[in-house]
Amino acid sequence: MRVTALGELIAPRRMGRDFRWLLASSWTSNIGDGVALAAAPLLIASMTSSPILVASGAVLQFLPWLLFGLHAGAIADRFDRRRLVMLANAARAVVLTALVVFLVTGTASIWIVLAVAFLYGTAEVFVDTTASTLLPMLVRPADLGLGNARLQAGYLVANQFAGPPLGAFLFAAGAAWPFLLEVLCVVLAIVLVSRMAATPVPARARAEAERRPAVHNDIAEGIRWLWRNPPVRMLVLIILTFNITWAAPWGVLVLYATDHLHMGAVGFGALTTASAAGGLLATLSFGKLERHISFATMMRVCLSLEVLMHLAFALTTAGWLALIIMGVFGFYAFVWGTISTTVRQRLVPQELQGRIASVNAVGLFGGMVIGQALGGVIAQVWGLTAPWWFAFAGAALTLLFVWRPISHIVSAKRVLEDEHGDAAGTADAAQ
User: Fold this and answer.
1) Over the chain, what HEC string results?
2) Is the dihedral of CA 60, 61, 66, 72 positive or negative?
3) Rounded to an integer, what distance in angstroms lies between the CA atom of residue 199 and that of residue 127?
4) Average pLDDT in the 43-62 region?
5) How far apart are CA 102 and CA 105, in angstroms?
6) Which pLDDT does position 209 carry in this prediction?
7) Distances (CA, A) of 103 to 44, 165, 184
8) I want to staple 276 with a disulfide (CB 3.0 to 4.6 A). Which of 10, 161, 398, 402 is the partner?
C-alpha cells in the first residue's frame, strides 16, 4: 500500500500511464547525464590546464543548439515525437560508446574529447527539444505545473544530486567508468520511453507540413509567432541574457573549485549536489510559494538572487560557504525553471510546441555558448574570479531592464488560467 501511495503522490493516476513512462525515462537519462556533469569537465581538466580549452568543452557541447536547434524544433512538430527521442538517444549512446573505447585503449586526446562533446551535444539537441514537447501531449493544461515539477524533481535528484558525486567517484576509479554507466542509462531510457504510446503529429501541423515541405518555412512560422507573442518573447530574451552572464563563470567552474577554492574533484561534484539539495527543498515548497506569492514577485526575487549569487562567489574563498551559496542557487533556479516552463507550455499551441521550445532552447544554450566563451577568455586574462565579477555586473544591468516587463508575463498567465478554468487547481495538485 505504501508503494502504491508513493506512486500516486509522485505521478497521480489521472495523469496517465504514458506520463509515468516519460517520467521514468527522464529520470534514468538524468542519472547518466549527472554522472557526466562531473566526469566530463574532470576528464578535460586532466588533459589540459588551459581555461580556454576547459571552457571549450562546454562550448562545443552547447554550440549545436545554435546550429541545429531551430531545425530540431521544426522536425519535432512534423514526426512521431516519441520515436524521435528514441533515435536521438540511440545516437548519444553510440557517441558515448566510442569515447569509452578511446579511453580504454589509451588513445583519447583532448581533441577527441572535444569532438565527442560536439557530437554528443548535437544528438542532445534533438532529444531535449523533442522531449520537451511530450508533456503537453500527455496531461491536461492544469497538470502541466505538476508534471514539470515532477520532471524537475527527477532532474534535481538524478542529474544534480546523485549523479555528480557518483561521476567524480567513478572518474577517480578510472576515466572510462562514468561514461560506461552513462551509456547504460541512455539505453535504459530508450527502452522506457518505447513503452509509451505513439505520439502522432497534430493534424494542423501535419497539414501545414504537407503544404510547405521546406523545414525553413516551419521555422519562420514559429519565429513569427514568437515575435507576435510578447510574454513568451520576453521569457526567451530573459533566458538569453541571464544565461550569458550565468555561463561565463560556469564554464570554468571546475578550475574555480579545484584551484581557487581548493575543494578537489569530489568537492567540485559536491557543489552540484548542494545545488540539487536546494532544488529539492524548492520542490517541497513550491505549492505553498505559489499560493502565497505572485508569479511576478517570485520571478523578480529569483533574478535578484541570481545577481547576489554572482557577487557572493566573486568574494568567497571558503569551500563551505560556496556550498551554501550553491544551495540557495538550486532553490531559486528550480522555482524560476518551473514557472517559466509552465507559462510557456500553457501559452503555446500544440502544433507549435516543438518550434517555440527550440527557440527557447537556442536562447538558453546560445547564451551559454557566448557566456562560456567569454568566461574562458576573461579567466585566462584576469583570473578565476573575474568571470564572477563580469556576471554580477551584467546580471544587475539586465535585471533593471526586465523588472517591469515581467508583469506582462504574469498577466498573460492569468488570462490563460481563466480560459482553462481548472488550471487554478495546479498548486493544490502539486502538494
Assistant:
1) CHHHHHHHHHCCHHHCHHHHHHHHHHHHHHHHHHHHHHHHHHHHHHHCCCHHHHHHHHHHHHHHHHHHHHHHHHHHCCCCHHHHHHHHHHHHHHHHHHHHHHHHCCCCCHHHHHHHHHHHHHHHHHHHHHHCCHHHHHCCHHHHHHHHHHHHHHHHHHHHHHHHHHHHHHHHHCCCHHHHHHHHHHHHHHHHHHCCCCCCCCHHHHHHHHHCCCHHHHHHHHHHHHHCCHHHHHHHHHHHHHHHHHHHHHCCHHHHHHHHCCCHHHHHHHHHHHHHHHHHHHHHHHHHHHHHCCHHHHHHHHHHHHHHHHHHHHHCCCHHHHHHHHHHHHHHHHHHHHHHHHHHHHHCCHHHHHHHHHHHHHHHHHHHHHHHHHHHHHHHHHCCCHHHHHHHHHHHHHHHHHCCCHHHHHHHHHHHHHHHCHHHHHHHHCC
2) positive
3) 15
4) 80
5) 5
6) 54
7) 12, 20, 17
8) 161
What is the pLDDT at residue 193?
A: 92
Choose between 202 and 101: higher pLDDT. Answer: 101
Spatial contact of 167 and 37, defined as CB atoms under 8 Å apart: yes
Residues 389, 213: Cα–Cα separation, whole Å: 48
* Distance in angstroms (rounded) separating the CA atoms of residues 220 and 58: 28
Q: Are 419 and 142 in contact (CB under 8 A)?
A: no
The angle subtended at Cα 213 by Cα 209 and Cα 214, nearest 5°, is: 115
- Residue 421 CA to residue 415 CA, distance in Å, equals 10
- 106-110, 201-205, 333-337: which range is least confident on average? 201-205
Lowest mean pLDDT among 86-100, 215-229, 235-249, 383-397: 215-229
Measured from the Cβ of residue 428, the count of other Cβ atoms closer than 10 Å reads: 11
In one-letter notation, the amino acid at residue 415 is V
Of 161, 217, 167, 154, give the one whose Cα is nearest residue 26.
154
Q: What are phi and psi of 29, to 5 degrees?
A: -60, -35
Amino acid symbol at 385: T
What pTM did the predictor assign? 0.67
pLDDT category of residue 105 using cuts at 50, 70 and 90: very high
Q: Which three three-digit cell numbers place residue 266?
A: 569530489
C-alpha 158/C-alpha 135 separation (Å) is: 19
